[in-house]
Amino acid sequence: MEAAEFRRRGKEMVDLIADYLENIEQRPVYPDVEPGYLRSLIPEEAPEEPDTYEDVVKDIERVIMPGVTHWHSPYFYAYFPTANSFPAMLADMLSGAIGCIGFSWAASPACTELETVMMDWLGKMLKLPEDFIAGTHGQGGGVIQGTASEATLVALLAARSRAVRMILASDPQRPETGITSKLVAYSSDQAHCSVERAGMIAGVRMKKIPTEQSDKYAVQGETLRRMIQEDKAAGLIPFYFCATLGTTPSCAFDHITELGPICNAEKIWMHIDAAYAGSSFICPEFRPLLNGIEFADSFNFNPHKWLLVNFDCSTMWVRKRSDLIGAFKMDPLYLKHDHQESGRYFYTDNSLFRSLKMWFVFRMYGLKGLQDYIRKGSNEVNETLLKRINNGRKIHLVPCQLSGQFVLRFAVCARTTESRHIREAWRLITQLAEEVMQELPH
Ligand SMILES: *Cc1c(COP(=O)(O)O)cnc(C)c1O
Q1: What pLDDT score does 351 carry?
Q2: Do 230 and 168 share a structural domain?
Q3: Could you tell me the distance, in angstroms and rounded to a whole number, from the CA of residue 92 to the centre of ligand 1?
Q4: Are residues 71 and 180 in the same domain?
């Protein structure tokens, strides 16, 4: 394909994408196919002679679409959200065209520098402690990973390396294998399965901390403290704790303000996995959920879930860059360049130009636009709803303000109220709410 045809086909593809997303509601969200459906629809071998572009495009509807689960259908409520926005898709096109790989500053200065700056922008939106921001006097900073699972593993490997170094520093005679076989890591029994798998990959014990329904499935400080004591008494070496803010089954939040100081006192690396819920911390009213971050060694969440940056973009911050760089440093001659010490960069793997997506999205939505997206509703909607409810004179409520939000209170007041009255009130409220939502932009 020459550039002239690419110009034409590119515009057609943009139309195809816009049509797909504008009409996605009409497609069945879940495909009606059996395993192996696709093999029978395409040849056994790659074509000897080239196919035409038209043939390829025709097969999108014939071969691909029947087997697609439409994650961006408004009827999709499975797993978790996965981000998708036009600015991010456009940035991805540009990133594909530049096609650089930023494994060092010299490999593409714009790629590595933009990543560091975007991580600072996002870190500031989240009001992370200065330690985690690269453009300060702190020793930390952010790096983009492919997935939260990767971030958990990277943190675990860095923690393992730090633990071994610390122990060898105090006892140089001790054989290293003797140390790793004693290491023990912890996470909630509600943690994502990738945490357990990280333990398997790293070859260390990973213990699940039991949680209770009565504690809303959050890990309690007391439970962690007791397990650490028991394990130390048994000769084990606790070295890593992965806290979850927003667990996969129930969006539970571990009490990191309690857990963090325990980890700090025991020199246990605390990693925070906030893959899904993390995006919400850009709103001041949700930011308290991140209190305790000041005790963490590393923190991660997925803008590719809930912050409009298309997959993949999983953002990870560490308090000390040297913990990551030190753990995985490779120094081959072909990666040496004249500005080796110039950066604050710590590209531990092949970084693509993923930061372009962040740059486009952050600039074109602005913090306000991103916050509106998380909140998906305005005070105006609630105010209008309350007016409608009270004007109807069937039921009567009053509002309140919570962190700048207009909230409708529903208090059960009269001695004579029975559940049928509440059900009737609820029916009325939902009916009026639906009317308001149809009328107002939201
Ligand atoms: C979604 C999720 C993960 C997995 O994220 P990936 O980026 O797909 O690895 C891990 N932990 C939590 C809490 C999640 O919500």
Answers
A1: 62
A2: yes
A3: 22
A4: no
**Residues 161, 135 share a domain:** yes
User: Do residue 132 and residue 199 come from a single domain?
Assistant: yes
Q: Quote the distance between the C-alpha of residue 137 and its chain's center.
A: 26
pLDDT at position 78: 93
* Domain presence at residue 103: yes
- What pLDDT, on a 0 to 100 scale, did the predictor assign at position 327? 73
315 vs 121: CA distance, rounded Å: 12
Residue 159 and residue 51 in one domain:
no
Q: Is the peptide bond before 312 cis (omega within 30 degrees of 0)?
A: yes
What are the φ and ψ backbone dihedral angles of 80, each rounded to 5 degrees?
Answer: -155, 165
State in Å: Cα 274 to ligand 1 middle: 8
Query: What CATH number is associated with residue 33?
Result: 1.20.1340.10
Q: For the chain, which residues score pLDDT lower than 50? A: 342-345, 347-348
Ligand 1 pocket, residue 302 CB under 6 Å: yes
Distance 191 CA to ligand 1 centre (A): 9
Domain boundary residue among 343, 368, 393?
368
pLDDT score, position 442: 57
Determine the Cα–Cα distance for residues 429 and 395; give it in Å rounded to an integer.
9
Residue 322, SS3 per DSSP: helix
**pLDDT tens digits, residue range 366-421?**
999 999 999 887 788 899 999 999 999 999 999 998 877 899 999 999 999 999 99
pLDDT score recorded for residue 283: 95
In a domain, 113, yes or no: yes
Name the β-bridge partners of 253: 245
Report how many domains make up the chain.
3
Ligand 1 close to Cβ of residue 149 (< 6 A): yes
Same domain, yes or no, for 101 and 45? no
Q: In a mutational test of the pocket of ligand 1, which residue from 192, 279, 301, 315 has the highest number of ligand atoms less than 8 Å from its CB?
A: 192
Rg of the chain in Å (alpha carbons): 26
Task: Identify the DSSP state of 336.
Answer: -
Q: Are residues 164 and 299 in the same domain?
A: yes
Predicted pLDDT at 344: 39
Match 């939201």 to its residue by tokens. 442
- Ligand 1 mean position, distance from CA 150 (Å): 10
CA 298 to chain centre: 14
Give yes or no: residues 203 and 243 share one domain: yes
Domain with 142 in it: 97-368
Query: What whole-number distance in Å separates Cα of residue 218 and Cα of residue 245?
Result: 9
